[in-house]
Amino acid sequence: MPTHKSKIEKLIAEKCPQGVKFLELGQAASYSETRLQASELHGENYVGVDNLLPDKKGKTSSNYVPATGAFTGFQEGDILLGNIRPYLKKIWRATHDGGTNGDVLVIRIQDQSTGQLDSEFLYYLLSSEDFFAYDTQHARGAKMPRGNKAAILKFKIPIPPLEIQKEIVRVLDSFTELEAELEAELEARKKQYEHYRSELLMFTGVGRIALNELIDMVPMPKKLNKELYQENGAYPVIDQGQKYIVAYTDDEKAIVPQNEYVIFGDHTREVKYANFSFAQGADGIKVFKPKNDAVLARFLYQALKNARIQNKGYSRHWSEVKDIKIPVPKMEEQRRIISILDKFDALVNDISIGLPAEIVARRKQYEHYRGKLLTFKELVK
């Protein structure tokens, strides 16, 4: 990394020693005005907000395509930004042309700026923590915050010479590739984990009982909106997102007492387990615990993780999930299965050991260097 940084420093000293100009985003880019009809869209070129992945993970293919209506068109090189709940950090640089809905902003470099602003460099600027903090700060609405389109175009971006932009992109791409390799290996281990879980929970001659008959629902004292989240606090906050603990709070009126709980994301189908006091973040989770000693909470968690729950998009799933038949073997067998699966769970989820720990360390290093590489002295006119 020092060699890469040194090359960029030399380029800066050569081409812009006094600093670089800064522009508001709207001076170099604008929202797409291209319109497409539903008949022009299909599963490979339609990208809705549900297809954009949180935490800057790109996108997945769509299994739903609207049949009617007009949509915003995007083209290769455009930046697609999820405009619902900006704190989810949904962003993707388009690798092909297509269309999207009104919940996604399509940011396109203006023709007069293509010679001074590289699309990949702009992607890195808009996927920075600084931008998402800015977008979240200016969002409107409490329950379903949306990015402020006018404010987004006022976000200030540096415009170093193109040669410097491309070198920064090259360095950051190399970090992205390293992280992708680690994540691919971790994903292979997760699939192995899921395979063993499926095998261990494949019972014959064991009674099955509807989930709803095995549990008691736990009413949560209150729901914490995102503006109440803290980076540190006495109690963790759990929501229905992929991240296990999303924030912290000191609000004792928001927590449930320490016990064993299973948490289900009604919209996301995420399943989590907690054996500590916590608060509910935002909306959309179902919290429950075993009704009696017939089944262990940790076993319920594994059984629900193993269940095939149909994806209904952002619709609610609990009405069907509560009727899923759960195998209930003897307690000794439940404990044996939990012991085996917990070892696998630690290997793929415990950020203090192994691959998960290495990925966390890489991400911190990546964000550190990205912040440094995207920080410029502003040219004084």
Helices and strands, with pairings:
Blueprint: H1 2-15, E1 21-24, H2 25-28, E2 29-31, E3 35-37, E4 70-74, E5 79-82, E6 91-93, E7 98-100, E8 104-109, H3 119-126, H4 129-137, H5 149-152, E9 156-159, H6 162-200, E10 208-210, H7 211-214, E11 215-217, E12 223-224, E13 235-238, E14 247-249, E15 255-256, E16 261-265, E17 271-274, E18 278-281, E19 285-290, H8 297-306, H9 318-321, E20 325-327, H10 331-349, H11 354-373
Percent helix among the residues?
25-40%
Query: What is the C-level CATH assignment of the domain at 20-159?
Result: Alpha Beta
Span from first to last CA? 32 Å
Return the average pLDDT rounded to an integer: 91
Regions with pLDDT < 50 over 5+ consecutive residues? none
Number of helices: 11
Shape: elongated
Main β-sheet description: 5 strands, mixed
CATH fold field value of the domain at 20-159? Adenine-n6-DNA-methyltransferase TaqI, Chain A, domain 2
**CATH homology group of the domain at 20-159:** DNA methylase specificity domains
Briefly summarize what is shown.
The protein is of the alpha+beta class and 381 residues long. The protein is 35% helix and 19% strand. The protein has helices at residues 2-15, 25-28, 119-126, 129-137, 149-152, 162-200, 211-214, 297-306, 318-321, 331-349, 354-373; strands spanning 21-24, 29-31, 35-37, 70-74, 79-82, 91-93, 98-100, 104-109, 156-159, 208-210, 215-217, 223-224, 235-238, 247-249, 255-256, 261-265, 271-274, 278-281, 285-290, 325-327.
